[in-house]
């Protein structure tokens, strides 16, 4: 029952006096007044809806009741029910652990009654009445007392709940790790549609000898070494992603015929990449495709990354079937050991006659004419890049271990990081500064992986330290592969947008808001694309 309001509550008296009879009379009168008040108030509550029904037949408006406030109110029946239900749920768990299944069933049944009553009150937008609440509260209170009488005291309850909370935390952590691992696996895997496309193109390459002969004729084209043209290099085994980079660059160029694209891929993707770029129209631009397996100079005696690839422990770490779940999944991403991924440190060797190139990752989309990059003054620096230190976690100390005295003596931990994915490289300055040798030195120093853990950016930050020219942020906007809240105006103003992160635009994981920016540059009329992707 509802407690009597405080102003009518009987005052506490510590001694009896001769006035006790007078006080009792006063309380009798007060009781009669309260009875009359409650009786009249109840009649008003009954008459008001009846008058509404007979007079206007207007629908009831329950918008005035805020059920959230109602359930938080200390004096409401909703609050009492919610609190009793919470306590009852704890006793259900304890009863089950003590094999008292009948009590657990009774408590569960009453909990369902509470939930039903609360949901009805919320649906109709009215407070729970005394008549509705009293039987549920009484019966549930009886069961809670029954549980307490069964020696389920408060200390037992606390210990039981602590153990359950700990178990739930462990399950949550395990689920988080598993979810991250599955997400990483999806991001690394080649979708079935892209595999289908690659198989069909490779089949054409093997069957159509004229295509192979055409490649041999184009191999020695003077355009691929003409420094009066604009040269772009892309290292990838993803045919569709590479085609988007090329298409978007050409579509936004003022003079497409002056563009030359240098694509390097692996032996598996070489045939499909050749067929795609031989059989599609690129507005007069030159596209050269090379096979990294033909670079005989890129061997274990020269490149540290190849030494690690040949090492059995490294292969087991990155490619093994049985992997330690305690290690963060992204640390085991095989792309960190990919030759194509590390080829960016050998650009002067791949193109010994070129003077300046723009490097593009295969997960970017070009939205502006990039030829202006070639006329930028890098002030003697090797690398032109957009800095990423607007956020604190993109400083050098976040990528590299500054507890190592060799690192701390040579580098500023607060120095700005910068982004790979759209970079202008002055290859003359690169050769002069011997940046590749710097890269080799730091790779040797990191043989035990104590300077940095993963990726190509940490060694690049070391190798290009003091040799990087900062570009305007609008040249390269990052985050479309993980950040769902990038400002639309920033995206529209960007020359290059970068889908860095796991949510690549060719995956089902892609962020739907950004995916059309990538899809618009696919040749969707190609029969193989229609067969493999659309259908």
What features would you describe in this structure?
This protein is an alpha/beta fold and 535 residues long. The chain is 51% helix and 8% strand. The strands form two sheets. The protein has a seven-stranded mixed sheet. A two-stranded antiparallel sheet has the order 5-9. Strand 2, helix 10 and strand 3 (286-291) form a beta-alpha-beta unit. Helix 3 runs antiparallel to helix 4 (101-124), helix 3 crosses helix 6 (154-188) and helix 7 (192-207) runs antiparallel to helix 22. It is elongated. Mean pLDDT is 81; it is low at 1-17 and 36-62.
Using DSSP, what is the number of strands? 9
Mean pLDDT: 81
Q: Report strand order across the widest sheet.
A: 3-2-1-4-7-6-8
Number of domains: 2
Low-confidence stretches: 1-17, 36-62
| The CATH class of the largest domain | Alpha Beta
What is the SS-derived class? alpha/beta
Architecture of the largest domain, according to CATH? Alpha-Beta Complex
Largest sheet: 7 strands, mixed
Overall 3D form: elongated
Per the CATH scheme, the topology name of the largest domain is Spore Coat Polysaccharide Biosynthesis Protein SpsA, Chain A
Question: First CA to last CA: what distance?
Answer: 67 Å
């Amino acid at each position: 029952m509802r407690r009597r309001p405080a102003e009518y509550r009987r005052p506490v008296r510590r001694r009896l006096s001769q006035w006790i009879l007078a006080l009792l009379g006063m309380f009798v009168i007060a009781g009669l007044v309260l009875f009359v008040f409650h009786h009249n108030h109840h009649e008003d509550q009954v008459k008001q809806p009846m008058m509404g029904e007979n007079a206007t037949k207007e629908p009831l408006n329950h918008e005035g009741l805020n059920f959230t406030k109602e359930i938080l109110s200390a004096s409401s029946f909703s609050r009492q029910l919610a609190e009793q239900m919470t306590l009852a749920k704890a006793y259900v768990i304890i009863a089950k652990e003590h094999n008292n299944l009948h009590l657990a069933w009774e408590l569960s049944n009453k909990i369902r009654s509470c939930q039903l009553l609360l949901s009805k009150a919320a649906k109709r937008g009215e407070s729970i009445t005394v008549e509705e609440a009293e039987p549920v509260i009484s019966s549930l209170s009886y069961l809670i007392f029954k549980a307490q009488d069964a020696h389920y005291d408060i200390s037992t309850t606390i210990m039981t709940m602590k153990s359950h909370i700990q178990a739930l935390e462990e399950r949550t952590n395990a689920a988080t790790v598993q979810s991250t691992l599955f997400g990483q696996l999806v991001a690394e895997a080649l979708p079935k549609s892209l595999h289908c496309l690659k198989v069909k193109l490779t089949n054409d390459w093997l069957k159509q000898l004229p295509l192979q002969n055409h490649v041999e004729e184009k191999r020695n084209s003077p355009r691929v070494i003409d420094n009066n043209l604009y040269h772009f290099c892309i290292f990838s085994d993803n045919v569709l992603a590479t085609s988007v980079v090329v298409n978007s660059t050409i579509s936004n160029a003022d003079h497409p015929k002056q563009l030359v694209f240098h694509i390097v891929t692996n032996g598996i993707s070489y045939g499909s990449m050749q067929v795609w770029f031989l059989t599609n129209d690129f507005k007069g631009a030159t596209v050269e495709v090379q096979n990294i397996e033909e670079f005989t100079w890129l061997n274990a005696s020269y490149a540290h990354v190849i030494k690690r690839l040949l090492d059995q422990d490294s292969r087991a770490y990155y490619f093994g079937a049985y992997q330690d779940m305690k290690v963060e999944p992204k640390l085991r991403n095989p792309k960190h050991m990919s030759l194509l991924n590390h080829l960016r440190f050998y650009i002067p060797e791949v193109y010994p006659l070129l003077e300046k190139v723009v490097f593009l990752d295969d997960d970017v989309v070009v939205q502006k004419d990039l030829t202006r990059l070639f006329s930028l003054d890098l002030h003697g620096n090797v690398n032109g890049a957009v800095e990423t230190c607007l956020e604190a976690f993109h400083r050098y100390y976040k990528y590299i271990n500054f507890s190592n005295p060799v690192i701390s003596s040579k580098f500023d931990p607060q120095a700005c990081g910068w982004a790979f994915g759209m970079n202008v490289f002055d290859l003359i300055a690169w050769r002069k500064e011997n940046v590749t040798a710097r890269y080799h030195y730091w790779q040797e120093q990191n043989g035990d992986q104590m300077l940095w853990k993963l990726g190509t950016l940490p060694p690049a930050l070391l190798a290009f330290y003091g040799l990087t020219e900062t570009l305007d942020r609008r040249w390269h906007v990052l985050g479309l592969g993980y950040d769902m809240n990038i400002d639309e105006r920033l995206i529209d103003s960007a020359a290059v947008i970068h889908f860095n992160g796991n949510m690549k635009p060719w995956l089902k994981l892609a962020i739907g808001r950004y995916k059309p920016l990538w899809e618009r540059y696919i040749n969707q009329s190609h029969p193989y694309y229609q067969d493999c992707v659309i259908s």
